[in-house]
Amino acid sequence: MAITNGHGVLDAEAVKHEAQHQTQNADSDVRINNWSTPGPAAFDFRSDVVTTPTPRMLAAIASTTLLDDVFQDDPTTNSLESFIADLTGKEAALLVLSGTMGNQVSIRTHLGGPPHSVVTDHRSHILEWEAGGIAAWCGALIKGVVPSNGKGYVTLEDVQAQTVLSEDIHACPTKLISLENTLAGIVLPLEECQKISAWARSHNITMHLDGARLWEAVAAGAGSLKDYCACFDSISLCFSKGLGAPIGSIIVGTKAFRERARHIRKSMGGGLRQAGVVTAPARVAVEDTFLGGKLTACHDRARQIAALWESYGGKTTNPVETNMVWFDLKAANCSVERFIEEGQKVGLRLLGGRLVVHYQIGEEAVERLEKLMKVVLKGERSNGTVEHEAEKLKMETE
To answer: Which residues form the signal peptide (predicted)?
Structure first.
């Protein structure tokens, strides 16, 4: 069935038909469409990776080209890479399967052989959530930086304090600084990025950005995508976190970086054949969610949730700058386990005091959340059921 109406415009009925999946058994004829509505994602505050892909993404998959990306033959993939390179103001881009792969490929591409060290925020994804990949792939020492300004982001002075410029044989010289934006929902200001970048480049230190949620900083008005990316030699951007694609990230940098990264990606098992099934919905995610302005609405809803929590006497541990709200459960005298269990009773999926607002969170989810607030902060009771052990759902953060 044709997905367009002959003029390159998506046909709504064709998309709806294409999105339908039927299952039959002896007793019933059940029509299931897991693409047409957010489903459980509409009530899931655990992360912005839980969004349900949309019918337009399915349509893009159904009509994508199916050529080989290892041979660089696939037009859909090549087009996405050119599109993102242009969007970020970089020479070239390369598809990767995940944000972790994007960071690991980028950093391995930049680094030669040991001894070398990487300076990064002590809470960063590359340090805490990538299975020790920097040590395994690069043989690098990672030095964690603790922000000292009380605002939740690292400064040039923080980075300088941990960077090793010495050539003394007892030292492990810093060859790369990796920043993350946003981190814990906090924006790293553009001015601070520019200061760190200028200083790093004056000492021939490479700059990488874990920009999985850089879209959020830009949507918050902190700076343009091109201005942020100009501060770094490489940037990893995620199509799944926040934007809603089912899979995929991309890294950007110079053409020389891209070609070296393609080699590293292959060695990590990241070469894809018919990559259009990944890149087609990724393009839709960028166009519909980021360029379509949906992230700003998420930030407004996050502020709404924080204000509601505070109106019942609750406290937050971090300011709400983008799409994350941090409830202070300790101040509320509520354990993480109880919070998760009570959340299940009102029909919400939570992993702790961090709530991540994505574009499929609607007013009904906020209403359920308000019921939970009354239970936790006002002593009201809920009559729902607990389906999953809190211990299995509990997670620090990622």
So the answer is: none
